[in-house]
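Q:
Got a chain?
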Amino acid sequence: MTVASTITATLSRHAGATPDRLAVVCDEHAVSWRELDRAVNRLAGHLAKLVPAGRGVALHLANGPALVLLFLAACRAGREAQILDPSWPADMTRLVIAALSPGIVVSGDAAAVAGAVAASVVDPHGPFDRVADALGADPSCAPIAESDPLTPFYVGFTSGSTGTPKGYRRHHKSWIESFRAGDREFDIGADDVVLAPGSLTHSLFLYGLAHGLHVGATVVLCRQFRPNLVNRLITTQRVSVIYGVPTQLEMLIEAAVHDGMPPVAGVRWILSSGAKWQGRAIAEMRRRFPAASFAEFYGASELSFVTVAKADEDVPPDSVGRPFAGVDLTIRDHLGRCLPPGEAGRVFVASPYLFMEYACGSETPLSRHGDAVSVGDVGILDERGFLRLVGRANRMIVTSGKNVHPEEIERVLEGHPAVLAAGVLGIVDERRGERLVALIRLARGARVASSELIGHARPILPLYKIPRRFAVPPHWPATSSGKTDFDALRRAWDSGACELLP
């Protein structure tokens, strides 16, 4: 069998083998493998005629059939899909479009792309079979040859609350190689039903879609993440693999408990990424999905897979796991020298899965040492090669002359049963330089005093790492990828909107 070298290279093969089986389900709309392959080829021919080689296809679309088909069609046409977040402010959208200079912009919102060159408007939530007609694609387009594997196929964006988001560019080979690494770990195949319930602007869920289709699985998507709906989809669509970020997985479990839903035996993998799972709901997750294996990824948009931690392996509890196959991890000091096991430094990653370059929005290049790249994470490797993350270099707080990584404190606070999430900030202080303040998200109905949280942290952390002030913001802000929005937390604190705990 020929080894596939592009994201869409296997679609026609799956369409030939199982033409009537469902390929993608998105809420009330679905498309078979035969229909998917035909629609992708028709749209790819259309895009190849409209968009010059080397220019991109900007997709300013909410989750739905149009985004799925146009992403795949751009890949097949040898054009990069530039996936913009429709929740961005209009000015930010215009800045990104101007920086990328795409050959065409497809949007569900005419006002948001007014003035853009070659803008087309489609209904992002319309059925699969109307997308090609809406764009005026020729029904008689001839099949298109697959691209060179080093052709760029995707520009995604890291979350950002101010300025222009950073757009990172990838070629086909980087994801194809990571597909192979994932296949060795999880063995996801054509018999699976893969649920990717988050926004496709988040690379985790786009990856879940692309990999699921690459191996011939059925992929289930949602317009919006609603825990009750997603729980029903898991049952009705007979989902066997679930991708999610920790906050989503906890919300699914909480909703299932609240609704008294019975266990689901068909789920065999739960794959989590985006933050360290704190394990608060592990026992309930095992009751809800008794046959499921659980794994966490550590990675970054620019790096793809870095480490994996499987629940059935002997992983230290504070570790994000061992390197994926093909990943070379080193810990280095500020001079680029490798540090021995047990010492903290910048995490450098060399692998076949790395991104190409920033397409826009980044004035500062990443730190490099030979083929290895660092996104600024600080970590420690143990003697067995397991990685423990200490924090981000750009979040480090200096208090009373000591360097503090807030992530370490946040993990400890999130171990308290009343705390669902924590965000530790450094607040300017004349005597200490910075003092620590912890904003927390409480579990439903929970109450806790500052003294109780200090007592919880005292056996684990030295005194200088324990905040003395705790507060609850009016709501818990999150980025589009489901991570805590620390910039928004700081704005909430600075505005005086947070409620101080006694």
Q: What stands out?
A: The first strand starts at residue 22 and ends at 26. The two ends are 66 Å apart (CA to CA).
